[in-house]
Amino acid sequence: MLFACTSTELPPIIGNGGNCSRNGWSGGEEKTNGRSGSIPNGYALADPTPTAPSPAVSASPRTNDLRGIRPSIRRSPLHGENSIANRVADGTATVAPLTGFTGRPFARRPSSCQSDPMTGAAPKNMAWIPGGTFWMGSEDFYPEERPVHQVTVDGFWMDTHQVTVAEFRRFVKDTGHVTTAEIAPDPAQYPGADPALLVPGSLVFTPTPGPVPLDDYTRWWSFTAGADWRHPEGPGSNVGGRERHPVTHVSWFDARAYAEWAGKDLPTEAEWEFAARGGLDRKPFVWGEEHEPGGRPGGNVWQGRFPWENLLEDGYAGTSPVGHFRPNGYDLSDMAGNVWEWTTDYFTVDHSESGKNVAPTSSCCIPTNPRVDTARAENSDEPYARRVIKGGSHLCAPNYCLRYRPSARQGDTEETSTCHIGFRCIIRP
Predict the structure, then answer these.
(1) Number of Cβ atoms within 10 Å of the Cβ of 114
(2) What is the pTM of this model?
């Protein structure tokens, strides 16, 4: 689907357009909605005016829409009244992504992942994250990253890289899984909608020919019929030669189904952020203090002026092979950039809202293994709940999205799919 980065990078999707997500993906460049406060080191954050309840925009023909792209179906870039998610939520429709598969009976893949970390027998392509106490969040960038607070997580195994196209293909072959982006919305759920838009698809990103105002993501995001994990840019495209690239155009349901098949799980936001920091507590980037360590890109992010000028200093216009950039202190690659990653946590406007992540000021105890397992009541009108995505993507740019940092976070609806959202898995002993 689209190539985009959540937050300001992700536009709401109106039928799988814009970035590579069909379900409530964040489209366009990463914008920060309702951001406030000073930005360190002179970073310029575009689009400072709040435009949506969440900094992330989903790109999916089902839940979120790109305003003006599929107006009859989506009501805003971040919300979609008639999205698949909404239809499933109110019991008027059944969607395969909710069950994790379509096709033959689901069978979990035999796995040797339950290794004892003390024996040194590491599961294939996984690294042991020792666990510990760290400072989660940031006071220096976007409001949703606040407040900074201490959190403790137990040790766990984490995939050293994002799930690749080749790995996801094996899962689909074994289970017959059909992704959210490959399922057409039910016309009965979209009264008055243009039938031509009620087709399988996802959001895809297209650079503009020159400078444009950054307050309209529909200039670079569009719903593309036929865009899915096998056809990232839509019909006529394929993943040939990209087997080692992260799989994209996958919804939270698709990611969860894969994790269950693999005998794994998706990480909580706290687990993900602890692992991303790689032992560098309270540093702005996964590689430390510098924006570009040694004067070179530390990950696959946008260099130049978004959304039209990509200098390709990192060598890639879209996704890159996993492991191409130097890993962090825990031997995890692409914890900044390449593609956003799904987590298990429901999204909250900041870390204190849920009451489960931040201990009261009068408390003597630091939260251990916190997770937000209740969706926000304010978003109950959305078809699908929002989950936290982390890490930023190749569409994140300093002039429009500075979320390729461990503390950065976005919220996308579960059915969202885009060309810049993927995932990786963990195993808890």
Answers:
(1) 12
(2) 0.78
